[in-house]
Write a structure and sequence with these properties.
This protein starts with a helix and ends with a helix. With 238 residues, the chain is mainly alpha-helical. It has a single domain, classed as Biosynthetic peptidoglycan transglycosylase-like (Penicillin binding protein transpeptidase fold).
Length: 238
């Protein structure tokens, strides 16, 4: 009797394990493929911020966000974000190993270890994952990054990023960022304004696009914005 119970328990655990593996492998495709046509209704970051705002008594509880199309976002902002966050975005497949090597080399020279997350990795994290540095979370982030790159075009991934990025306390997406900080639509952002918004992405709830840190960081971003983001065809021409 005991042997039969153990066998039944083992079979159930094995089925559960198979189901969990299939869920992890197939589930992301089910969630990500529709993003070719629709914008995600919400993200884990937005839900987390909503909970924080509720506990802090802030209003509105749900952060402000206004999704817009690619044509309604200034090319200046697209270029500024790439220059600031992931200038090799069009050259890698979700993981920038060259930037990872550079970050490790800087750390060996005694400088603080900077993250080398690509825009695709940030989309994966912002859409689906929780905060933290556990191996489980990093593993899920890596797999979601692979699926995003397989299912979506580079331009679509950037569209998603611009519409879900955090740009202040309760401010998400390029349109709401432009209206909150510069009182204009995202499509009307100047080069300097775009650079300032991109400059605060590493710490949007602490830094203001009009503050001293943004001014210092934006000056370097504007310099990089003078040149288009490199693409594979540019390497072929060389």
């Amino acid at each position: 009797m005991a042997t039969r119970l153990k066998r039944t328990l083992w079979q159930r655990l094995r089925r559960l394990a198979v189901f969990a593996v299939l869920l992890v492998l197939v589930g992301p495709f089910v969630l990500i493929l529709p993003l070719n046509l629709v914008q995600p209704f919400t993200t884990t970051v937005i839900l987390r911020r909503s909970a924080q705002r509720l506990l802090e008594g802030k209003r509105p509880v749900y952060p402000r966000r206004d999704v817009v199309s690619r044509d309604e976002i200034s090319p200046n902002l697209r270029r500024a974000v790439l220059a600031s966050e992931d200038d090799r975005f069009y050259l890698h497949n979700g993981f920038d190993f060259e930037e990872i090597e550079n970050a490790l080399e800087r750390a060996k020279r005694g400088r603080r270890l900077r993250g080398a997350s690509t825009i695709t990795q940030q989309v994966a994290k912002n859409l689906f994952l929780w905060e933290g540095r556990s191996y489980v979370r990093k593993g899920l982030e890596a797999w979601l990054t692979v699926v995003l790159e397989l299912c979506l075009s580079k331009d679509r991934i950037l569209d998603l990023y611009l519409n879900l990025a955090e740009w202040g306390d309760g401010v998400f997406g390029a349109e709401m960022a432009a209206r909150t900080h510069f009182k204009k639509a995202a499509k009307s952002l100047s080069r300097d304004e775009a650079a300032r918004l991109a400059a605060v992405l590493p710490s949007p709830r602490k830094w203001s696009p009009k503050g001293s840190i943004a001014s210092r960081r934006a000056s370097g971003i504007v310099v990089r914005m003078r040149y288009p983001a490199p693409k594979p065809e540019d390497l072929v021409k060389r």
